[in-house]
Amino acid sequence: MRLILLGPPGAGKGTQAKKLVADFRIPHISTGDMLRQAAREGTELGKKAKVLIDAGSLVPDDMVIGLIAERLSRPDAAAGFILDGFPRTVRQAETLEPLLGKLGRTLDKVLSLELDEGAVVERISGRRSCPKDGSVYHVVANPPRRPGYCDACGAGLIQRDDDHPEKVKERNRQYWAKTAPLIDFYARRGLLAPINGAGTAEGVYRDIRRALEGPRGGRKG
Ligand code: AP5
After folding, report:
1. Is 88 a catalytic residue?
2. Model-level pTM?
3. Ligand 1 in contact with 31 (CB < 6 A)?
4. Which of 27, 66, 23, 28 is nearest to 44 (CA)?
């Protein structure tokens, strides 16, 4: 199964990706996670990316294309993958096609999570993330057992620097200007599955599974 998860910031891409990983046992490839990891490690790329991420801007296409090209060529991505946060511009999407072609692969489905701006702000303002293992919580919808601490590893939870309201506004603006054109891009290729992202995480996942059982989406691996 080779999937793309598309959707505005906070639409639930990471949350749904984890459910897909548990069911299909394929890697979750999140450019946001990769860039934050590079920033934590203090690499040159990570330092450059952090400034842009914290401002709510996108990082340059070439920076993420390089990361994705390397990641997709690893053996664990041969059986399938879930791309979360990539592609994010038409140029990234146009580059992905020959990249996959060289590896002899095609996409099965592009799941487009739809959520209005009010819900986006509510979800992002309540999000708490584990800086150690990447677990994601929500203070109301998905609280940790012990408030403020990760269930899985016990680390103190943080609010992402780009999750503050004025940054969220800019991220949303970037989404509608640069990423939303991909909805049309993939609809024209017959790959788009629009998913209502407004229900519970379980309800949204049920809709995703239904979409994957439709044409071109039913096979594993
Ligand atoms: P990235 O990390 O990709 O951020 P994003 O797309 O803004 O998405 P988020 O991680 O904020 O949200 P999500 O949709 O995964 O939602 P989640 O499941 O956590 O990118 C960050 C930055 O990196 C970008 O701004 C850019 O600078 C850079 N970048 C990354 N990729 C790039 C690229 N390709 N090109 C250029 N730049 C790039 O859910 C959110 C909250 O809601 C959580 O608290 C969760 O628990 C809760 N929740 C989830 N689902 C539900 C539900 N159904 N009901 C109630 N609560 C829910």
Report:
1. yes
2. 0.94
3. yes
4. 66
Helix, strand and coil content of the chain, in percent to the nearest 5, comes to 50, 15, 35
Residue of 13, 109, 123, 128 with catalytic role: 13
Active site residue 206: no
Closest CA to 165 of 126, 116, 114, 115: 126
What is the mean pLDDT of the segment spanning 119-127? Answer: 92
**How many Cβ atoms sit within 10 Å of the Cβ of residue 21?**
14
Q: Tell me the per-residue pLDDT of 131-178, one tens digit each, with 9 for 90 and over.
A: 888 889 999 999 999 999 999 999 999 998 899 888 898 999 999 999
Q: Is the CB of 200 under 6 A from ligand 1?
A: yes
Asked if 219 is an active-site residue, the reply is: no
Per-residue pLDDT tens over the stretch 38-73: 998 999 999 999 999 999 999 999 999 999 999 999
Question: CB of 103 within 8 A of CB of 118?
Answer: no
Whether residue 87 is preceded by a cis peptide bond, meaning omega within 30 degrees of 0, is yes
User: Which of 140, 136, 141, 143 lies closest to 163, judged by CA?
Assistant: 136
